[in-house]
Amino acid sequence: MPLPIKVSIVEDDADTRARIAQSVRADRELQLVGEYGVAGEALTGLARQSPDVLLVDLGLPDMPGLDLIRVCAKLYPDCEILVFTAFGDEAHVLAALEAGAGGYLLKGNLSHDIGFDIRDIKAGGSPVSPLIARHLLARMGNAKPAASQKEGECALLTPRETEILNTISRGYTYAETAKLMGVSATTVHTHLKRVYRKLSVSSKTEAIFEASRMGLL
Amino acid sequence: MKRARFWPLAVLLAAVALAAGAQAPDITQPIVFERAEFLESRSSRIPPEDAPWKPVRLPDNWHESRPGYSGIGWYRIELPPTTATRRVHLVHVSRDSADLIRFFLNGHIVGSTQRPDPSLRLYQQPYATGMMGGTLREGKNTLHILVEGHSNLRHGLPRVWFGDSVPIRAMWLERYRLHVLLPMGCAFAVLAMGLIALAFWSRNRRDPQFLWTGLAATLIGAPALLHFFIGPGASGVGRDVLQLFYAYGAAPALAMSGLHVARVERRGQAWLLWGLLAVGCAAPLLLGPLAFVRVSSALGAVFLLILVGVFTLVLLRGGQHTGWIRGIVAASLAAVIAFAVHDLALWMGWIGFDRIALSAFSAPVLALALGALVISRHLEAVGSLANANVTLEQRVADRTAEIERTHKQLRGLEQERARVAERQRIMADIHDGLGASLVSLLSVVQTRRAEPAEVEHRVHEALQELRLAVDSQDTLEGDLLTALATIRFRMRDALEAAGIALEWDITDIPRLDHLSSRNLLGIQRIVLEALTNAIRHAQASSVSVSLVAAADHIAVLISDNGRGFDAAAQVHVGRGLSGMRRRATETGGTLRIESAAGRGTRVTLTLPLQPPASNRG
Q1: pTM of the prediction?
Q2: Residues 463-482 of B with CB under 8 A from A
Q3: Which ranges of B24-125 would DSSP assign to H, the alpha helix?
């Protein structure tokens, strides 16, 4: 039996936290190593426990969830950070991904097997909704056809990644996408994980560029 | 000594005087006679030696020495002994200052002026006449001079010069240049300037300055010039008029220049200028035919007073004018006033009778002043043109900024309107979706003992509505594919939980720009309702959603393999087929529901590819 996945939870709502903790404990492949109500506690606790997966709520009382994600992503690059979100709407999700999160969990759907979700996300990132795919295309791809694309204009997405996002934005699942493209589902996951990372990196690059332009660096 | 007499002209005429002086070779020093003997006589024959000759001083102005005298008077001058009798000698008087002057040497007539009209009493032409070699005797020679004139016309005899022909001719030539040629040239210049100004005006009639400058200069220059050419030979009224123009024309024109510098036009007193011009023209024309002699000095006095007044004005009010213009006009006025005073003194006998009358030089002074004004006008025009350019550029910049501002405002309004519309849409969505779900949940909880499963279902439904509303914040702008995909994404878990397989078959279609976000939300709700019905009521094991594109429309088909219902009997439960139909109509599409018991349900939403005609505006 493989080592259990160590999970920490940062959630200010006690009931939700308790319910999630219960789900995690119920799963034999998961090990709950910490549960915190505020970001401050979490930061001190994380230093000792070094979890594999960190579940973070965006609305924390003492610190914006996004900031916590940013700090943790820097301090513990090996830790997978997942975000709780009520709606999975693209604004929150993209912000979390940019901050360095690896995926998100829909709060309303938590009655299901959380272990399954966590394993699934660890394997291939959280599901990209069609809206998010559309946004990723708009932000990182080149909306213009390749013919009119200027040389040196860097498209962050490879043609393959663009195709995958395009298909997802039309409502197809990963499996269907893989089938349509004649690749394995794992390949689709890999591609999407890479897109997530690019988003995080590109947002950092953008920040650095902006900062240097403003004379802060 | 001679040059000292011209001191008032020294500055203006220095060059002419120097040139004349340099030409005089000093062979024999000319003699000037400032004393003579006079004899009153009515005879035109030389009086005898022993007549009662009385010594007089030259120049002899009859107005002073013998008031009221009129007729012939005789002068006798003893020439000093000379040995150079073989040389040509000349006798010279600086002005033709009587009706007739006739010279006799030793009883023989040697020369005579013409007999001009009495009006030419100050006729400026110098006179010289020669004595052939051999006419002079060794020893004593006597010169008799007959002068016919009137004391009230300031007739008399100037000083008499006598000597070798070469220096005397040089002397005469100098006097001739100053008295005749220079004023003539000036008259030419003034006339030319006037014509140029008039030509300017004819090109640009909106500028009256060129008109009055041109008229003034032309009306002075032309008569002055005519005076030189036809004056001596003409007689009567015509010459009197010309003479008056010549003598007094410059004064009103110069006064106009002064008034211009004093800014009468800017003060709405332009009539002063035109009035002066009219007076300047009318006075000689009207007074000439009357009696030139009597009114002449009065006219001169009037113009002198006007000039003094204008000069004062220039000094007091010319402050705003360009410095050098004001200086030139003021200096010109001062010079002309000085000339007039000088000539008045000459006329009244206060100063030497054979001095040069300076009024003739008013013309070049006038030319100077008018020229300065024309140049200043030109500079002003150039300056105002440059100003106009700057102003124009400024105006263009202002207008551009204004347009940008307006544009920004309009854009702001547009955005504000869009925001308001968006807010209204969100409110409507929340009211129709989440609000309705919560109301329904509340009634379930209130009316019966709610079962946890039912409540959970209702809450999920409410949450689903909320997510839909949140998703619709993202402006899809006619992106029907993503709208449908979002529904699938949201319903995936619910379908899986119900054990229903979903077949997804979506054709790529272009963006449908006529579908607003609200339309898309309506379509999403229709699909959502159909799927919910399939999950909750149909007991289906598979659902298929497909998008079919035809030439002029697209169709969204949702079909299940559930138990179906009797479409005709409308026994179907759920949130209502009527709601779905209403939404389809709002979207501009049509909805068809086909079902039969045991044969599943098929919902077809047909949407036009083009916006409906009523929406096209």
Answers
A1: 0.46
A2: 463, 466-467, 470-471, 473-474, 479, 481-482
A3: 62-65
